[in-house]
Amino acid sequence: MQKTVWRARAFSLFSVLLRPDMKLITQPLATFGRYLQLMAKVFSRPERVRMYLKQYVKEMQKLGVDSIGIVMMISFFIGAVICIQMKVNIQSPWMPRFTTGYTTREILLLEFSSSIMCLILAGKVGSNIASEIGTMRVTQQIDALEIMGVNSASFLILPKIMALLTMIPVLVTFSMVAGFSGAYAIAYAGILTPEDLTYGLQHSFKQWFIWMSFIKSFFFAFIISSVSAFYGYTVEGGSVEVGKASTDSVVHCSMLILFADIFLTQILS
Amino acid sequence: MIEIKSLHKSFEDKEVLKGINTTFAEGQTNLIIGQSGSGKTVLMKCIVGLFDPTSGHILYDGRDFVAMSKREKMLLRREMGMIFQSAALFDSMTVLENVMFPLDMFSSMTLRERQKRAQECLHRVNLEGAERKYPDEISGGMQKRVAIARAIALNPKYLFCDEPNSGLDPKTSLVIDALIHDITVEYGMTTIINTHDMNSVMGIGDSIIFIKEGHQEWTGDKTQVATSTNQALTDFIFASDLLKKARQAFI
Description:
The complex is a heterodimer. Chain A has one domain (49-268). Chain A has 10 helices and no strands. Chain A is mainly α. Chain A has helices at residues 2-17, 23-42, 49-64, 68-90, 99-138, 141-147, 152-188, 194-202, 208-233, 239-268. Chain B has one domain (2-250): 3-Layer(aba) Sandwich (Rossmann fold), CATH 3.40.50. In chain B, helix 3 packs parallel to helix 5. Chain B is globular and about 55 Å long. At the A-B interface, helix 6 of A face helix 2, strand 6 and helix 3 of B.
């Protein structure tokens, strides 16, 4: 009897939360539903594999190769700054001299080169994807594809997702290398000895941390490419809406990456 | 031939199309005319499947488009070509790549054959020498001609033009009109043009349907327009004093 009462109460609470005027609940659910519908359309059989491969190679260039510069530059400076911070604020005479190198490595491998680097990519690549697809929508280029009988969602979005998934390990690797180069630049500038840094970087090294970084970045790459494509593809209106979609995509990608990071770190650690 | 039967389209509680019944014959330029907001763009978008009608039927040579599955619609769309108001060329591709796109996607031709066919289409719209240019490097009239070349690349049975003269000067508009009309006759296509350009109405209106507030107000052809007694039609077509005087003189 009590079970039935509780069930009825839970049902009434659920129906209140899902009322059309409960936009706080219904709107994110509706958006998520539309996202899933779009993804179902994206992951369908391509009409002409050759054309998709051509797009895939173009997107690898645009989303991956063209991002190497910014990834390396930011990683180099952040690697250098982390090294200085560790030396100045963490290192003390009571700690081993390799502490700076050790902590710099852990920060770069565990968080910076995967999560923070993907947050940066959400800004660069995510806004690029959303504005490109959004502009195609408002200038009727997507309608033109549909009229030709092309699955526009799949043709435009699938190569982007696959390209970013392919290029993300490369970008993560470049980020790690550039971050360590930044740390070495600081060491050679005389703030700590390169030997201490090298020893710290090698101390208690776990190869799994690199794999963890790659695994996390695959999830983040999927979030960046699919969520920003969703915001671009569903634009209605003109240039103002394209700008808004671009901003929304960066905000939502960043939030989702941060949420996913918590769960992935917990699962993979 | 495309037949429209009792077509209704509503957006929430607003009914935009209120029971359209008409037939668009093949080998003719069929015009849909009407004021802005009268529902002609919605009608065209329903016909090509960008909007789902609320009720009614759209028959492509007897095949009911509304009742088709998504897959069947995709296949039928390969028999369609469309020229958009903004030309809608892919701005990351050159002119030649734009025209080759439907061929790359759906034909089984070799690369050489596809290039040859694209060149033929560009030749047909008098646009040789612009193959390597990007859409933003050519004029609005040239963009429309590229859009026509792309639309005819796969020899479509049905051609749709959404305000093809929009943004063009009167002389270029006449050239585009003549081109669409000639291609329609040459390929034997069923062509539907959505326009409010009076030169198009009087020049290439083999069949005209006038839409007012979602209703089919009048049907006829270019020879009947001037002598029509339909007040809404004459008010729309002969809106300026000059055109009114010209009509009086004609009558």
